[in-house]
Write a structure and sequence with these properties.
The complex is a heterodimer of chains A (about 350) and B (about 170). Chain A has helices spanning about 1-25, 30-55, 60-95, 100-110, 115-140, 145-175, 180-220, 225-235, 240-255, 260-280, 295-335. Chain A has about 350 residues and is mostly helical. Chain A is globular. Chain B has a single domain, classed as Jelly Rolls, CATH 2.60.120.10. The chains are: A mainly alpha (about 350), B alpha+beta (about 170).
Chain lengths: ~350, ~170
């Protein structure tokens, strides 16, 4: 009995060590983390599609092929239709975001008679911060080489996860000591269920807000409607402050580019309307609060994310952390049901 | 049982032949085709338990049922109202924990391996997944499992009637 307990402890130790190593490596392997995160997200979504195909009597292999064809079509459309638009807008936008240009544009657009050193200093700091975020971001999202790597690796990863995921999970469960077998199986189901709901909710939210914002920005003849719409959609990944951060980004760009206060006011109204529509649409979905984190904790995470990865960190630190928290929280809940914790 | 990471990338095909052999030995799935047996082998788990090892415990969440392939399993009710443990023995061909397969319930009994045992487990998530992916085969399997459950229920009913008869003969109950 003692030997068995020791071996169980060893097994648990292995699992904990693997998890800790993975978590510790994530900050250093942000590209890998991004690819794994995106592949995992897409796989979870495509898995439900694959099951739907199989439910219609299509064989598993053909279902997998259909899913992969759908994914490759979407990625191709994204690369050949959307990315060029985003890339042009982003590069142009990036050129105007220079601290000195930003400062002078802000002065001109707001028509401020700046004599105070404090205001001068604040605007200077703000422009440096924006510049810093953009400089960190341009090499992550729209760098041609990373885009190529991502567009090739993600379908491969998704294919492998869809084809072998169930087998790997099964082999992993089969290896577990008897005491952990049912609890870990239950844990997989719980985590998958929660992650699926959460990811689906986030994707629908990004899509709705992104499309509405792009339409609103195009109607108001605001420059860079696609990239700003996407930014606003993605900013809603951040709880509490997401829409505010998104609005600040858009307003900064508008004031820099056109300097029209009238457009800015019209846009604030449009963003408020989008927020209202989004709240109404998500009233039922958002009622299920999966994870509640204190705003102070979110601010700390945002600062860490932004300082490490720029805009990318600002937008994706919270989703990464949420996924991590869901796994940890559910592990405690499920394993304590089995008196293992 | 140590966590052996060497087998995580193993193909299932070799294991499946052994699993199919074990499944056939239960006698329940004789009318299943070869493909159906492979499909079934992909959703069941063969688990080995050492003597005195707990298979599942009372009041813990249950996920599925087990077919006993080898060995003897003792099932006990730890929290009996009269304060005494009650136990029953199960051997090859018997099933354990069927109630957890169909509903999200806690285990009502504790099962302990009396000697080294080999059990074949079938679990709710895999069964529901199969029902959704392949409804035709899923329903066929469900029907088979229904037969197992109803046959167990019939046995239990007979047992209760026999006990009742014995008690009434002894004038303990009317």
């Amino acid at each position: 009995m003692i030997a068995q307990l020791t071996s169980n402890k060893n097994a648990l130790l292995y699992i904990i060590l693997i998890c800790i190593t993975f978590v510790l490596l994530i900050p250093y392997l942000k590209d890998v983390a991004l690819i794994l995160f995106l592949s995992g997200t897409i796989s979870i979504m495509l898995y439900s599609l694959e099951i739907k195909f199989e439910n219609y009597g299509i064989s598993p292999d053909l279902s997998l092929m259909l899913c992969m064809i759908s994914l490759i079509t979407i990625i191709s459309l994204f690369i050949f239709k959307l990315i060029p638009v985003y890339s042009i807008e982003f590069n142009h936008m990036n050129q105007i975001i220079e601290p000195n240009v930003l400062l002078s544009n802000l002065k001109n657009s707001l028509n401020l008679q700046i004599n105070s050193h404090t205001i001068h200093f604040l605007i200077d700091q703000y422009s440096k911060f924006i510049n810093f975020l953009f400089s960190r971001t341009k090499n992550l999202f729209f760098d041609d080489s990373s885009l190529l790597v991502i567009s090739i690796t993600i379908p491969v990863f998704v294919f492998l996860i869809l084809r072998d995921g169930a087998r790997l999970k099964r082999n992993f469960l089969q290896m577990l000591p008897n005491i952990y077998f049912e609890p870990i199986m239950q844990l997989f189901i719980d985590i998958k269920g929660i992650l699926f709901i959460w990811l689906k909710e986030q994707l629908i939210m990004i899509l709705i807000v992104g499309v509405l914002a792009t339409v609103a920005l195009s109607s108001l003849r605001v420059p860079y409607p696609f990239i700003l719409g996407l930014a606003l959609g993605l900013s809603h990944l951040i709880p509490y402050f997401g829409s505010f951060i998104g609005a600040i980004i858009i307003l900064t760009v508008i004031l820099l580019d056109s300097g029209s206060i009238l457009t800015a006011v019209a846009l604030i109204i449009a963003l408020a309307l989008i927020r209202l529509i989004y709240k109404l649409l998500f009233l039922s979905l958002r009622s299920m609060s999966i994870i509640k984190v204190h705003p102070i904790f979110i601010i700390i995470l945002l600062l860490i994310g932004a300082s490490m990865w720029g805009f990318f960190g600002l937008l994706f630190t919270i989703p990464f952390t949420t996924v991590f928290f869901i796994i940890i929280k559910q592990s405690f809940t499920t394993l304590s049901d089995y008196n293992l914790i | 049982m140590k966590l052996d990471l060497r087998h995580i990338f193993n193909s299932n095909s070799k294991n499946n032949i052994e699993v199919i052999r074990k499944l056939k030995s239960t006698g329940l799935f004789n009318d299943f085709s070869k493909n159906e047996m492979y499909e079934l082998a992909n959703i069941v788990y063969v688990r080995y338990y050492k003597k005195d090892e707990i298979i599942f415990q009372e009041n813990k969440p249950g996920l599925g049922m087990y077919f006993i392939d080898e060995g003897t399993v003792k099932v006990i009710k730890e929290t009996c109202s009269n304060g005494y443990d009650q136990s029953a023995l199960f051997g090859p061909g018997d099933t354990l924990g069927e109630d957890s397969l169909f509903s999200d319930s806690i285990r009502k009994l504790t099962a302990i391996a009396l000697d080294d045992c080999c059990l074949i487990g079938i679990f709710r998530p895999d069964l529901f997944d199969l029902l959704y992916r392949n409804p035709r085969f899923g329903n066929k399997l469900l029907l088979k499992l229904g037969v197992v459950v109803s046959s167990n229920l019939a046995k239990k009913t007979d047992e209760i009637l026999r006990i009742r008869d014995t008690l009434s003969r002894s004038n303990i109950i009317r």
